[in-house]
Structure formats: C-alpha cells, structure tokens
Specification:
Length: 664
Amino acid sequence: MRAEDIFIGPILRRTQPDLVTICLATYGAMDLRFSVRERGAPAWLAHDDGPLVVQATPVLTFHFAHIRPTHALPTGVLLEYGIGVKGPGGVDYAPFEAVVRADLLSYRGNALPTFVLQSSGAPLHVLYGSCRKIHDAKGGKTDTLASGDAVVERAFASASRRPTVLCLGGDQIYADDVHDIVRQEIAVLSLRLQAGVREELPDAATMGAGGRERFLKRYAKFTSDDLMNHVARFSEYLALYGLMWNGRNWRRQYRELEHFTKTLPSARRLLANVPTYMIFDDHDVTDDWNLDLRWYEAVKRAPLGKRIVANALMAYWLCQGYGNDPDGFGPLLTKELAQLIEKRMKRYGDAEERFWKLDRWEFATPTTPFVYFLDTRTQRGARNDPPGTEKGAPAYLKSRDSWTATMSRLEPMLRRQGPSVPLVLVSAAPVFGFRWVEALQSFVSFIFGAYKYDYENWAANEGHFAHFLSLLAGRNVVVLSGDVHYGFSSTVRYTEFDSERSRGAGPRRTGTGGLPVVPGGAGASYRPTSNAQFIQLCSSAINNYAGGFFTRFPAWLSSTQPARIDTDDGETVYGRYERGVFVMLEHDPDDPLARVQVIRRPEEVRPVTLFRQRINDAFNSEYVGDHNLGLVSIRATSVEHCFLMEKGRHSERRWDFSNARYWE
C-alpha cells in the first residue's frame, strides 16, 4: 500500500463500542486487515479480516471494515486504528503508517488516526454543516472543514472536549455546478476509473463534456441552471468524490482553486479521525432533485434522467450512505446492492429500478442523545398530500406514510433515551427560517417558477409544516440544518390546546411537560395540552457563499415575532399566552393604523395551536454569511453552540430546555 494507491479514505464512519466502520477505496485490489486498539497499546483489541469489498470499476475497489470486538471497546479513552496488508509473511501495518506520515492523517505525530467513543454521561460534541463546493472563495479563503480539523487538533487527547461526531447535512458534492477546471480533472480521472470500459448513456451518444445543457434539459428533463459541466456517468460521480476528499487525485494545483485544494489535507484528516455521518440533499444528485412529484415523474420517464439519478445514488451509497449504518441495510440487501453496482454494465435496468426505490436512507447515530437524519428527498408527497393529486411544488418534504415510518422508529428510541434528553434531528433545509426570506422566495417563485430558486422550504407547504409540529408536540428538539448558505439560530415554541378541533382528531400522546392529553369535561377547555420547544441551528455553507444580497441588509433579518394563534373559528390571530390568559394584539378602534394589547380569556380566543419564533434577538445568533461550520455541545437539557469561521469562533450562544426564558 502506497499513498498514491488510495482513492479516498480512510474515512471513519459509524463507531460504537461493538462496531467500528471504516471506508477505504483503493486503486486495485488489496487483501487488508482493519484493526483497533487503545492509543499506543502493544496489542490490538479487535480486527476485521474480511471487510466488505465492492469492485466499483475495473480498477477501483471499495473496502468497508466492520470491526466487531468480542468485548465492548472502552469509552472515553483515545483509540486508534490501523490497516494491515496481508501477505505470505503475515500482516504488515508499516505501509499504512507510512501513508499516515506522508499524507498527515494523524495529529501531533501519532502513528495512526485516532478517535474517541462517547462515555456515559459525557456531553455530545457535534461538528455539522453542508454545502461544500470547490470553486468558491468569496465567503472565506479556506474550506471550513479545516476549522473543524483545527478543533480536533487542539482537543486531540481530551476525551471530554474532542468532537464526538461530524454530521454532514447535504450537498457534499455539487454534481451540477462544476467548474471548467474541475470538469477537466473529472474527465481524466473518470477515464482512469473506467479503464477502457466506457458507460454508454442512453439518448446522449454525442453528449460531450463542457456542453451538456441542451442534452440534459431535453433528454434527462433536468431543471438546474448549471448543466454545462454536469456529471453523468457513474465514474464521473466517483471522480468528483475523489477530488472532494483526496488531494492526490488532482493532477496539479491551480491558483484559481487553491483556496479549496490547499486545505484538502486538513479536510481529509478530519474525516479520518472523527466518526462521520452524511445525508444527501439535491446537489449530491442534481439541483431540484425530487423537488416535487412532477419533477420525479418526468425524470424517471426519461431514460437519460433515470440513468444519471441511479448513477448518483450508486455513488452515494458507496461514498456516503452505507457507512452511516451498515446494519440498517442488512446483509442480504447489502449483498444485493453491491452486486448490482459490480454487474451494472450487464444489468443497468435492474440497478436503476432498485436504487430509485431504495428507502433505507434515514438513520440515527449511536450517541447520547442520538442524532436522527431525515430523508427529505426520496420520500416526498404531493402538494396536497393526502390525497396527493396536485404534483406541483411545494411538496410535502416527507409524505405522511414516510412520517409514519419515521415516527415508528423514533418512538422506541426516544423511550429508551428518556424525556430529559432532547431529540436531535438533521434536516437538510431549516425547518424554521427567516420569515421575510421565505416570503421573498415565495414571491420570486410565483414569477419564475418553483425550480428557479428552489421553492421547497418547510413553511412553503403549510400542511406538511403543521403535520411535523403535531408529530413532535410535547418534545424538546434540536434541529441541525444547512442548505441555505448562511448560518443562524432560532428558538421556537409550539403549544397545542384542548379544542374542539383537537378533540375531533382523536387521542394524543401526553407531552413531556406532564400536561394531560385531554382535560376533563364534556366541552373543550382551551387549556394547553402540550408544549414543544425547538432550537433551530443552521450552519451553511462549508464552502459556498450565498452572495452579497443578504449581507447588505442585516437590519431586514427579522427579530422576535408575535405569537401566531390558530383558532377553532378557523382564524389566525396574534398575541402571546402567559399565566393562563392571552395578551392579544388588536387594532386600536381610535387609530386603525395602530395596535393595542388586550387581555382575552382562553374561551374567548378558542385557541387550537400557538406558534412563536424568536430569531436574531438577544438569545439567538445573528445572520452569518461567510463560510462556517457549526459546533454544538449537548449535555442533558443544556445546549451550547458557535460557528467556526476563518476568523475563529463566532456567535457563541447557550440555551437550556429547563428554562422557559429562551422561548417566551
């Protein structure tokens, strides 16, 4: 094994006391042993002598190690892993140690990459972010994965301070928006990966690199504004991952892109030393991917579109999806998917159908609290789901059936975790955003169409948004998001009341605050039955600047909004609920342009739900436009957060779910 033999990796994936998963992709086949031990110990604790091997192309082999120790690995101590090359004389770990030295894959001169398993009672430290594009230097001179790498280096030997996991929330690659230089690099690397076995795309025999827009719009039914250099073949998707994760895959350095390539060693070291979990968003496949059911059906009917999406998903499964939770796929499905990839040239139709139908993308991290990654791309519902007859945007980001499946997985996990620990969700796009931005997006989309500016935020579909809030009634929830290319934090409270409408909806789960499902009495009491508290954290982009428009108008970026109350009379009114009464904002009869505060009893208001969002105020971070990576620490009910930026830590904030002041 030499440094130049490695395509991507090693990437540390799912890690827990009874399983360590490592991904390594190499040029050519190798017989490898993966091992783990305490840092500096003379003896290994466990091995995997038979990793899952997938022959992705004639010259590219993926190795997935599943190290399963006989006895649980120790938590709260520094562990390290090695990769041995098996030969007639035994297993030799020296070549991998030479790779670690040559490519700087360890910290502080350590011979091997290291990691820490979270111990009982220890805080959860999460690095999180999304949107990492090669050709973007406007938001900062460096890729902010390098900032995460610096945090790990500073806390190298401290189990209590070192980041527990890295959560990447989408757009790990930009398959559509490809720079001309990157296109050239992909073309050369793709040919190397194909090794003479060229994939012929349907309906695009004359489609060349650098001029693909006309073909992709006509034959694939794609809608992105960046199609000239869009990757299409399976080997091209793989080549793009190779350029994103390993500087050795670049033929040379380019001054125009050095802001990205110069920090690739730091990004690669971070992936090698911190358990990494990933979920897709649209650009991992193509812009607007499954934005609505109309897009889904049009692209699936187009042979070229169907092929490209399948290629993207096969590459995603190898590079991102499988390592999140290997046991979640199971041995039979894993074998099936691996064989479909290996034999795709003979059975492309089977591979396309299987990967289009695959619905195993959601998963949870083995941490406390666990982090649950939502699939908001492949399980979408129609605009008015149910019954699902209107297929234009904005769609349900997750159909009702998909939510039912998600909640059936979440409920037992939440019971085991206990009510004092918050539920942590990863949603590619923020669930709770800036209202004026979403209103502007709605207006612009009305003129230019939904695909132009990705009109698919959570608030765009009121039915889906309300369904989500109802499902999480009574919970304490932290939401980690990205996608929008700026960072911020927001606190949200959602209250349900005993109303005629809620009684007609049937029995409900008791909230974590001990509130009754339905208070006694024959009629609605209009007293609260559950309170949900949310902390929305959004870190974006790792390396993709939003543009100057937002940064020129910081005063526009909202502040605390009055609470919105939906009533049994079907109206929406504004005010706040405190000490058993509503303080309403109503028009002053003496001055129609002014509002006054009026005290109303609950039976006068007849509330069904109350929604209140705080944003850009004393308790929440302001808008952050430059490249950033989020760092959040959770211990019991306490949540601490900051943005890691080129200039250091920014907007440090702290919340506690046990203290209502952050939400009132």
